[in-house]
Amino acid sequence: MLHLANRELALAILDPTDPADLARQGWRYCHGGYVWQVTDAQLGPLVTGPSYPAEPGVYDGQGLPESFRHTRRDNLARLTWRAANGVAIGAGTLTASPDPKASAPDAVLLGERCQWTVTPAADHVIFQTRQTAAGISYELTRKIELAGRTVTSFTQLTNVGDTPLALQWFPHPFWALTEQRAKMQLPAGTTVPENSVFMIAADGALTFKRPFGPKPDNQFALLTLPPKTPLTLSLNHPKLARVTFEVSYVPEECPIWGNGHTLSVEPYLGLTIQPGETRHWFARHGFKK
Question: Which end of the chain has the smaller Cβ count within 10 Å, N or C?
Fold first, then answer.
């Protein structure tokens, strides 16, 4: 693994050039810039996953992964595909499983992985790759930066092909729960449909109706956020005063999901990148004592 550290925090980041780390990476999450764990110098590990503290399955993952979707979340319309061949940007080429009975995640197979150049520095690591497949060609740069108690993930994506590139991107942070519950402050006016776990007050305060039970107990819902505003939120943590989270863009949609081990808010960025165009964005965590 790759490591960034200061007096406050240490990051363990999967190395996309190391076969041992590649065994933890499939087609779901971007391989470059995958933060596996954030550790406080005095308090220990701070982020979890759907099976934490057990070693997760490749599809589930843990930590602060991020993903370029190859199909739309809402209707599964194919995005980065041409006929039977696809691309998971930042992961590798895709094919559909020959087994007609296969379901996610086994319905998609990862083929040729991206080749990454990794450039470490004292307070950041830069990951760069370029890939051409399934009728698309792109250049991707990811930068993970540690500054004090703040972790920022920067992404730069360039369409170097000759057709528009349409896709969805989202961070999938796995935050720790306190006794299978969480309290979260979302923007005022955020709402959520009726469900068995999450409820949101008019001021944006999210609380749990009940704690999560053991697997398979979980809850998925779609948040409705105030329009035209990048998402910012904060939540409680069993070891810290709070965790803050922000993204630099206005989400296209925003799922929330949790189980007895973790909670995640996933602000989706919808992208259509023209040939020769470059887009930039970031996601940022603050781990507050």
Answer: C
